[in-house]
Amino acid sequence: MKEIDQVAQTGPDATRLPFYHCPRPTAQGHLRHRDAPQNAQTARCGSQTPLPITEFVAEPMEHTKIAQLIDREAIRDCLYRYCRGIDRADEAALRSAYWPDAHDNHGAYCGPAEGFIEFALGVFKAGPRNIHQITNILIEFISSSEAAVESYFTALQRAPDQDGDVRQTLLCGRYCDLFHKREGGWRIAERTVVYDWIEEQLPPAGVEEERFGPRRPIGAPHPDDPVYRFGKRRIPSRHDSSEASNDTAASAEETEGPDNFAMLQRSRRKTVP
């Protein structure tokens, strides 16, 4: 509520009296009138009679929309944790995406999510190269604690087959998930993987380290991947202080050595990932 002084009358003896004013509403809600304070004086045509004060009252619907935005972000974060869990063979990240009683249908595996987690970790900890990307996330709330979620994915996988030959496969499809909210957190309660595209590719020849050349570091499973050097999976953001950024650079220089660190910085500027 703003209090604006207005002149009640003109001339050298003019008095300035408070005028209560409500700005135009900026969100969904309604205007409610209430009585002005007893000591308030409102100037209107020289009258000293207090006028009602108008105030803006937000509708409950606004709170519901804000809560849904927070829930949507929590669901997206869960999907991204799943990708990290698979690509980095990170057991904690993978388990955090499912409820303990969740069910998973991946085609090659169909059953309790606990069994899929053990199956996936047994495969991906052996050293296959995996890249999972999530796009086109459509979230439809069934209730305040349930949501149907469709997420498009692209996965590039490279691993030896039963004969020891390296195979590379490009997969595209959708994760069709039922999310439950329990104790304030969102996780997958049921998942069905729908496959829309598969392409067998010829793996490039040569040793992987030689193909990367100076492009280091190379991604690795948990806990050896560089992302885990930042504590609890934390990556510095643009909001961090300059001192924190300098400390991170100094730490990297100490780990890699001055010469290696400088060479790494130069190689990053010359190449496009």
UniProtKB/TrEMBL annotation:
It holds the Pfam family SnoaL_4. Residues 208-273 are annotated as: Disordered. Residues 68-192 form the SnoaL-like domain. InterPro entries: NTF2-like_dom_sf, SnoaL-like. This is SnoaL-like domain-containing protein. The lineage of its organism: Bacteria, Pseudomonadati, Pseudomonadota, Alphaproteobacteria, Hyphomicrobiales.
